[in-house]
Design brief:
By secondary structure, the protein is mostly helical. The protein has a single domain, classed as Arp2/3 complex 21 kDa subunit ARPC3, CATH 1.10.1760.20. It is 81% helix and 2% strand. A two-stranded antiparallel sheet has the order 1-2. A hairpin with an 8-residue loop joins strand 1 and strand 2.
Length: 211
């Protein structure tokens, strides 16, 4: 039991480090403002959530953002806070649904619902918390954010329309990409993430047969 917990902790730690390193790879998307960049750092946390449970996925997400905040933050932890909360929404919802219904269909349904929930949560969070924090703590005015958005989309003229036309589509787009990668990779990495657990069950079964 103690050995299983240690192996689980090692897996979580390795996935968190992988997620942290992936945060350095950011791709700008021309249809979104420059500060909204796509990264796939939620991918290891999603894989961990499917293999080790949704709580493990959230822990991976937390460790990833703590590491990034300590070593590479340019936003006084505000960006890391947003990344953790929004990513955790996707991970918790998707991971829980997959835990209840462990099948390919369950994974697809979980990821789709997770992406929708994440996008809605990101909209609320940015409107009430994150963008006001950027303005208060970093002196990055909301009017400047709205201005950046209006240059790309003429429907944007205030914070509310910015959230609707930029934050929601961005998170839907990002969520779909990460979900597709999760579905493509999980079957390959699942045996590795489950290896110790399967070995333990096999040994336990052999001991019972010996009696």
């Amino acid at each position: 039991m103690r050995n299983e917990k240690l192996v689980r902790l090692i897996k979580i730690s390795l996935l968190a480090v992988m997620a942290f390193l992936l945060m350095y790879i950011e791709l700008p998307i021309p249809i979104f403002p420059e500060f909204l960049k796509i990264d796939i750092s939620d991918l290891p946390a999603l894989l961990g959530a499917f293999a080790l449970g949704p709580v493990a996925g959230v822990i991976i997400e937390l460790f990833k953002n703590i590491l990034h905040g300590m070593l590479a933050s340019k936003t006084a932890f505000i960006g890391e806070l947003a990344n953790f909360l929004v990513g955790s929404c996707l991970i918790l919802v998707s991971g829980y649904i997959y835990k209840v219904r462990k099948s390919k269909k369950g994974a697809i349904v979980g990821l789709l619902i997770g992406v929708v929930c994440m996008s809605m949560f990101a909209a609320i969070l940015n409107y009430f918390v994150i963008l006001p924090l950027y303005e208060t703590v970093l002196g990055f005015p909301i009017s400047a954010v709205v201005g950046m958005g209006s240059k790309l989309n003429h429907n944007i003229n205030d914070l509310n329309s910015f959230v609707i036309w930029m934050i929601v589509p961005f998170n839907l787009f990002k969520g779909i990409i990460i979900s597709a990668m999760t579905l493509a990779l999980y079957k390959s990495v699942s045996p590795i993430l489950h290896k110790e657990h399967m070995d333990s069950k096999y040994k336990k079964k052999n001991r019972q047969q010996n009696y």
